[in-house]
Design goal:
The protein is of the alpha+beta class and about 90 residues long. It has one domain. It contains three helices and two strands; from the N terminus they run H-H-E-H-E.
Amino acid sequence: MNCQRVQSAFRPKRYRVAVVASAVQSSQTAALLKERQPDVAIISAQLHEGPLEGFRVRRALQSKTRAVMLRASRERDPPLPMLRGHGQE
């Protein structure tokens, strides 16, 4: 279901984005990334196999594709101090 929500968010023509594929299993996601080699991949941290499986798929990605990782959370605060501006030195 979340896959469909993300996909529909990019459908309006004003974004000039083409959705070329979607998947919920890590093996299918990895195969599509290898086959299609998109400029940008939006990958959920939680795929069918588990809550951090998307990060494993991202680490295995061996192309010029840039990845945006989605993380489901009910927390309102950013998870990392550097996202709050505390990581700059």
